[in-house]
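request received
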Amino acid sequence: MALIVQKFGGSSVADAESIKRVARRIAHTKAEGNDVVVIVSAMGDTTDELLDLAGDITATPPQREMDILLTAGERISMALLSMAIHELDVDAQAFTGQQAGVITDTAYGNARIIDVSPSRIQRTLSDGAVAIVAGFQGVTQFTNDVTTLGRGGSDTTAVALAAALDAAVCEIYTDVDGLFTADPRIVPSAHRIDRISTEETLELAAHGAKILHLRAVEYARRYQVPIHVRSSFSDNDGTLVIDNDEEGPMEHPLISGVAHDSSQAKITVVGVPDVPGSAAQLFEAVAAAGVNIDMIVQNVSVHHSGVTDISFTLPHEQGAAARTALEAMAAKHGYAEVKYDDGVGKVSLVGAGMRSHPGVSARLFSALYEAGINIEMISTSEIRISVVTRSEDLPEAVRAIHTAFELDAAEVEAVVYGGTGR
Amino acid sequence: MALIVQKFGGSSVADAESIKRVARRIAHTKAEGNDVVVIVSAMGDTTDELLDLAGDITATPPQREMDILLTAGERISMALLSMAIHELDVDAQAFTGQQAGVITDTAYGNARIIDVSPSRIQRTLSDGAVAIVAGFQGVTQFTNDVTTLGRGGSDTTAVALAAALDAAVCEIYTDVDGLFTADPRIVPSAHRIDRISTEETLELAAHGAKILHLRAVEYARRYQVPIHVRSSFSDNDGTLVIDNDEEGPMEHPLISGVAHDSSQAKITVVGVPDVPGSAAQLFEAVAAAGVNIDMIVQNVSVHHSGVTDISFTLPHEQGAAARTALEAMAAKHGYAEVKYDDGVGKVSLVGAGMRSHPGVSARLFSALYEAGINIEMISTSEIRISVVTRSEDLPEAVRAIHTAFELDAAEVEAVVYGGTGR
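response:
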């Protein structure tokens, strides 16, 4: 008998039929002798509908009230799911984030969990009942104000409760079979990853893979919570996100997968004075405008001209804010030009094995060269290489890299670090 | 400067435009220098929609989960109303029943308020902000489980908070101008009552008047909270529900109004053994079936037959349960017949003045006689006379009584106890 945390997203509980299907799965897990804690998101489009309602009232909603509004969605789904489980003659109780002991800071709209005190959940499990917990929400420590955890917050709730309850596994149910070596809509030969480290999952999530939320993976990494990403539409095994140092590096594949991100744009500032501190000034202004910068390239100053060009990537939707800030800087510091380019895409190759394997970037660049794809920017971490291309080249770039690293093979385990020297 | 509690029902906050209109009224009250606490119900049909959702899942929802589900409605409306007030540059904060300190017993679906600890509301008022509180909901004392207060529960929340905060007045906003001497849809000459005692309001509410919820008036009576029932669509004065012993009985009109109730049915049990305890047996069986009995008439046993007939009224929707219980009793105790009649209606005349005025019932009976209306049952309290008629006679009965007691006059104050001896 194990304690299992199961998280179901909005598409898994979109209507009464879906809720009943999820209830049957929970009852089945319970019947197998497990203790079950379920985290549930708001039904289908509920959150968007609530946002629309707020939009009809005001363009600038106070954040505290916005969080109260949005958490109504989980209140509905958690109550209905608990009813559906009762209907199967299995005892269940639904709990708000507050009742489940999810304590957060006061950053409304994007609160961080600072403590989890799940005594009510533990009591419910001791009583033999299933505990249903509203995802995405918590409560502030001293004032008991309702908070939300931001995009993908229900994943974070699930992992945090799994950590606090010392669960055997945190199952994240979704509409696909797990994490894939690339997006199957772009690479038909992409296949499910059986097992992957949290570190690689973080890189994939940070660079475009949409399945798991970054903060949930960070939490799982810190508290060593095994995550099982799987489909709510089948009983197939999914992807196990787990760190296991005992097995050593020989078990790790060289490459885990290819992520892509078409939501980025590129800004190039031409003619920045090439003096100490001028790049810092520029990026301070951009940061003050609330812009999240991803990759940065500063050109080498040629011909001793005294000026240089700086390029960086940022999310599309922050483009206007960044340009406004930079135009002001241009007027003040005499930049020659601020160029905005939303025709870019980013492809990232992730693999823990590349840490000690020097040939990876060469193989990646040559694959793109052979596919006739131009590289505009490059950034790397210990276990990742990202390149920016024209957005129309992005799908072909993903496919070329996927093939070059032999990820098209049926078994990803075939491509392991060491041995052949690839 | 006074502390004013304002309660807005679902029809007053049915959509974004209505919410904005309510926000303007609140901001106006605040701008006049008052502290304002607002109780709000769920938007329009939200509660019915949530009930439908639950109905798609199960026919027998657990009550605890049902209360969690239903309270999502006020969570939405309170957040949106607070946003709309912010939009008018007035500071506001929304609070759940729990945050507002509304503590109840554990009778899910129909919980009773056992304590109100509104320290957060008081702090919000001290900070100069408007406090918005979710109506209809509370939280259990020790387990912090969400409860609902039953039909009309938002009125009760409003009165309970007004009592706890020692508010100058509890304004209940509705879609009519206040309490009327009769239902204006039936009696076109009915007019608004300026002022009425809680005792009379209780009788009117208990016997068919729909404007105020019974428990809210009981609460107001116990804690001496003045209620002002008024329209959310105009600035007109409404009806002041208040007890003021200092003014003495001379100020009270003889009759306050005429209520009617067409939701009752009548059961007659024929041939009940006329021995001690048999009526008690019968009503114990009916009570055990969860039926709320209103009026009872036991016929005089004639011709020393040893049997008698017992008639009583009950809500339509409890008819099936009562009949099932009584058929079983009939088989066991040899009753001759159980007759069910849903073609009845009840009209009630209410007035504190009738306590010391003997001519009222005679005038009522003669008015019905002159209108050719047959009386099937009669019950009275100190300040009320109710009669059961055929349901098709009910509208005419209401009009005849309204006219006989000179309530058609433009000024209800003209009809006062004493003086003319009427």
